[in-house]
C-alpha cells in the first residue's frame, strides 16, 4: 500500500523556572581610626539552623529544562515504508518523550494489519527492559479509488495512546534542580518505574498549559529550598505527557 499515513494528537510541554533571590550581605562598619577605651564586644553568633542534606542527592543544576535528544532515535522511516514500521517508530518516540530520557537499546514493533478491515491494533515498545503498549483504536481507511491492481491508495487515520509510561528518577530529580535552582534533590523510587495510566488520578492542572496532571501514588520527592534554608517534600505529579510538575 502506498500513500498511507497515520495521524495522532500531539501535545507540547512547558516548563516554569522558579528563580530564587540571592542572599545580600550587610556591609560592616570600618574600625575607628583611634584607639577606644570602650571594652571589646563579641560579634553575635549566627542562629541560622544547619540543614540536614543527608537524605538528598547532589547534582548539577541544569542550564535549561532537561529534554531528551530526539535526534538520537533511530531514523524516522520514509513515507514509502510499510505502515507498521512507521507506527512502530511513532510509538518509540512517544515512550521516549514521556520518559524524557533516551534508551539507546529501546526497540519497538507493530503487528501487520489490514487498515481496511482492522479497527484496533497494539504495538509494543521495550524501554529499559519493560514493555509499553501503544494501542491504536478507530483505525479507518479512506481510499482514493486508485489501485495498482493489488492495493488501493488512500489514507489511514486512527487514535493512539500509551497504556503506561516510564518514570525515570534521575530525570525527575534533574527537573526539580532546574525548577528550584538547587543542587540537592531526591525522589523515593527505584531508578525507573513502569507506571500504568489506568490507575492514575487525574485532575485539571489549572494552568495555561493544555493537559492534565497525573498523580503518582507512593512516590514523593524532596529538594533544598535555598531561600527558606529548608528541605521541602512534595508529591510526584506529572503532566500527562510526562513532564514533572512543581506545585
Name the features:
2 helices, 11 strands, mainly beta, disordered N terminus, elongated, four-stranded antiparallel beta sheet, five-stranded antiparallel beta sheet, 34% strand, 247 residues
Description:
There is one protein chain. The chain is mainly β. It has helices at 83-99, 169-180, and strands at residues 57-58, 107-109, 121-127, 130-147, 152-162, 164-168, 184-187, 192-196, 201-204, 212-225, 230-239. The strands form three sheets. Strands 1, 7, 9, 10 and 11 form a five-stranded antiparallel β-sheet that branches. It has a four-stranded antiparallel β-sheet with strand order 2-3-4-5, with helices on one face. β3 (121-127) and β4 form a beta hairpin. The protein starts with 56 loop residues before the first strand and ends in an 8-residue tail after the last strand.
In short, what is this structure?
The protein has helices spanning 83-99, 169-180; strands at 57-58, 107-109, 121-127, 130-147, 152-162, 164-168, 184-187, 192-196, 201-204, 212-225, 230-239. The chain has 247 residues and is mainly beta.
Largest sheet: 5 strands, antiparallel
Strand content: 25-35%
The secondary-structure element order is: EHEEEEEHEEEEE
Given as residue ranges, the uncertain stretches (5+ residues, pLDDT < 50) are 1-48
- Mean pLDDT comes to 78
Number of strands: 11
Euclidean distance between termini CA atoms: 48 Å
**C-alpha Rg, in Å?**
26 Å
Number of helices: 2
Q: Work out the oligomeric state of the chains in this entry.
A: single chain
Helix content: 10-25%
Coarse structural class: mainly beta
Outline, from the CA principal axes?
elongated
